[in-house]
Amino acid sequence: MKRTLLAAALAAAAVLGASPRAEAGSPIFERSYYSHAPAKPVEIGPQAHRAPMGPAFSRPQGFAVNSGYRLQRSIMTVGGQIVDQTYNWDSWVQTSGKY
Predict the structure, then answer these.
(1) What is the pLDDT along the chain (99 residues), one digit of tens a residue?
(2) Domain ranges of the chain
């Protein structure tokens, strides 16, 4: 057992030791060209037209119903005989308006 574990550890060390190392020329170490200053000036046009009363919301366009149920049955048997039996029934209904 110890020999197998030692052989596995040596094999893992050999595989991990043979992996390529990160070098200074790697793209991960290159300077980033990202900047908060845009390359050319950004022009902001006139404000978009806004309704004088504010945002308008529509009334519900329909009706939605989600429902489900779950039935769980648990039975305990001892020596081939049922000694305890439990039934759990859960159900639900959820309604909402569709916009």
Answers:
(1) 677 777 777 777 666 665 555 555 777 777 777 666 767 777 766 665 555 666 666 677 788 888 999 999 999 999 988 889 999 999 989 888 876
(2) 66-99
